[in-house]
Design a protein that fits this description.
By secondary structure, the protein is an alpha+beta fold. Helix content is 54%, strand content 8%.
C-alpha cells in the first residue's frame, strides 16, 4: 500500500493504547472523532487489513504445531500466550493463570438475561427507556437482540432528519436526547411501508447546529442498552455451548486455529512493521495477537480471543445443533462450519453505536450525541473468514487422532 504516515498519526489521535477502539473512546471517554475523520480512520484500517495482510494460508502450511498432540498443542499455545501476558492483559485479556479458564461461556450474555438487566437498569423517560420501548415494539415479531439492531439501524438512518425537524423554528439552541428518542419511538408505531418516512435534510444541509444533549449517566445507560444488539443467542444456546466448550476436541481446534492465524499473519504484519517503523501500526489487531515490547516483533496469540470465540461463535454452533436436533456429543465439522457462517449472519462481529462527545466543561456532566456509527473489530472481520475455512479443518483433524 502507499505509505501515509499522516494517516497513522491521525488515527492514533483517536484510537490508541488508552482509547483502544472508537467504541471505548465514545462510550467511556466521551470523545468521538468528527464524521469525516471517523470515515478516514476506517479507510485507513481497511487498507491495513485488505492490502497488507494475507489472512489465509495454503492447506499444507500448518506451521510448527501441525502435528502436535492435544497436550503438546496446549503447552505450545500457553507458553506463547504467557510470553506477552502483561501486554495481552492491557489489551483486554482476563489475566487468567491457567489456559482452561479462558474457555468460558457466560450465560449472562444471553438475550433473555441482557433484556432482563436492561429492564432493571433503565430510568423511566430516559433516552434508553424510549429505545427499550422501541425494542419491545419490534420484538413482537423478532427476538429482542434483532429488534435492538433494527431499532438502532433505523435511528441512525433517521437521526439527521429528526435533528433537523426539531431544530427548525426553535428559539433555544439545545435539544434533549430524550425528546428525540420519544419522538422516534412514537413514529415507529406508524412504521409500515409507504406510511412513514422521517423528512431528510437537503444534501449538504447542516443538522448539527443544535446539539442533542443528555447526561453522562443517561449516555452510559443508553450505551449499555444498545449492547443488547450484540447478544443474539438464547439461554438454551449458551447451555449447549457450555457442553461444546468442555469438549477437548473443540478446544484443540480453537487453539490450533488461533495459532494458525497468528502464524499466517506473521509475514504480512512483519512487513507492516518494517514499512511503518513502529509497532503501533498493529494496534487494530490486538484482539487476535500482540507483540512484546522492544526489538522482538514476533506475534503471540492474545488468549482473550479464545473467550471471545466461546461467547460469540460456539453459541452459534450450538444453535445449529439445536436447529438440526443433534446432541452436543455428535458435533461434526459440518456443524462447526455452519455455526461459523451463522455467527456472521447473526452479526456477532459488528454493532451500531452512538458517538458521544463531552459538552461544556468536564464538571457539567453533559454529553452530546453527534450521530451513530456501525463498528466492527478490524481483526475479527478477516478472522471470521479464516475461521470459516480452518476451524472445521482442525476440528476434523483432531477427530482422527
Amino acid at each position: 500500500m502507499t505509505l501515509n504516515h499522516n494517516g497513522l498519526d491521525e488515527y492514533l489521535q483517536w484510537v490508541n493504547e488508552e482509547a483502544q477502539t472508537a467504541k471505548i473512546s465514545s462510550e467511556l471517554r466521551f470523545r468521538s472523532p468528527p464524521r469525516d475523520r471517523l470515515r478516514a480512520n476506517d479507510r485507513f484500517v481497511r487498507a491495513l487489513v485488505t492490502e497488507e495482510a494475507a489472512w489465509s494460508a495454503p492447506a499444507g502450511a500448518q506451521h510448527e504445531f501441525g502435528e502436535l498432540t492435544e497436550s503438546q498443542l496446549r503447552t505450545v499455545y500457553w507458553e506463547a500466550a504467557e510470553r506477552t501476558r502483561t501486554t495481552a492483559v492491557f489489551f483486554g485479556a482476563a489475566g487468567h493463570r491457567t489456559l482452561d479458564e479462558y474457555f468460558a461461556v457466560d450465560s449472562a450474555r444471553s438475550e433473555e438475561a441482557a433484556l432482563a438487566r436492561a429492564r432493571g437498569a433503565t430510568t423511566p423517560h430516559s433516552p434508553a427507556d424510549y429505545l427499550l420501548r422501541t425494542v419491545d415494539r419490534f420484538s413482537s415479531s423478532i427476538g429482542p437482540s434483532q429488534a435492538c439492531r433494527r431499532a438502532m439501524s433505523l435511528l441512525a438512518q433517521d437521526w439527521e432528519g429528526l435533528v433537523g425537524e426539531w431544530s427548525r423554528g426553535r428559539t433555544d439552541s439545545i435539544l434533549r436526547a430524550s425528546d428525540l428518542l420519544r419522538d422516534f419511538y412514537e413514529r415507529t408505531e406508524l412504521r409500515t411501508p409507504g406510511r412513514h418516512q422521517v423528512e431528510q435534510p437537503p444534501s449538504g444541509a447542516r443538522t448539527d447546529s443544535s446539539p442533542v444533549l443528555l447526561t453522562t449517566a443517561e449516555a452510559r445507560e443508553f450505551s449499555a442498552l444498545y449492547m443488547l444488539g450484540k447478544y443474539p443467542f438464547t439461554t438454551k444456546e449458551y447451555e449447549v455451548a457450555g457442553d461444546l466448550v468442555a469438549m477437548p476436541r473443540l478446544r484443540s481446534a480453537l487453539l490450533a486455529t488461533h495459532l494458525h492465524f497468528t502464524g499466517a499473519s506473521a509475514k504480512p504484519l512483519a512487513k507492516l512493521l518494517s514499512e511503518w517503523g513502529t509497532p503501533r501500526v498493529l494496534l487494530p489487531f490486538t484482539e487476535a495477537f500482540v507483540s512484546r515490547t522492544g526489538a522482538d516483533t514476533h506475534l503471540y496469540p492474545n488468549p482473550k480471543l479464545i473467550t471471545v470465540l466461546c461467547n460469540n461463535v460456539v453459541p452459534a454452533i450450538a444453535g445449529e445443533l439445536i436447529h438440526r436436533g443433534i446432541p452436543a456429543e455428535a458435533l461434526d465439522s459440518g456443524a462447526v462450519h455452519a455455526g461459523v457462517v451463522a455467527a456472521k449472519r447473526r452479526h456477532v462481529f459488528d454493532l451500531t453505536i452512538a458517538m458521544f462527545d463531552r459538552f461544556g466543561s468536564p464538571s457539567s456532566g453533559m454529553v452530546r450525541i453527534s450521530g451513530f456509527s456501525m463498528r466492527a473489530c478490524p481483526a475479527l472481520v478477516p478472522f471470521s473468514s479464516f475461521l470459516e475455512m480452518w476451524l472445521p479443518y482442525h476440528f476434523h483433524r483432531y477427530g482422527r487422532r
